[in-house]
Amino acid sequence: MAKVVIPAGLGQQFTGGKSEFDIDATSVRGVIRFLEDAFPGIGETIEIHMAVAVDGEIYHDPLLEPVGPDSEVYFLPRIGGGKNCTK
Fold this sequence. Notes:
Number of helices: 3
Structural class: alpha+beta
Low-confidence stretches: none
Shape: globular
Largest sheet: 5 strands, mixed
Radius of gyration: 13 Å
């Protein structure tokens, strides 16, 4: 089972404070689906506001990224910036 970690704030809002899970899934989409089934509303928040690191590699559009049984999946707040930033 993959080790899945969500930010503490997301845990407070949706999971009663739990921020680490062992989840049996083969893709990031499967991980999000599992979390959504267990904690309604968390899936949409993750998809809109979170980036994902799978085994140390950060993805901003990760839904189809594979997750192995020994993977570590971390959901991280997206970092703003780019051409629309002001100085």
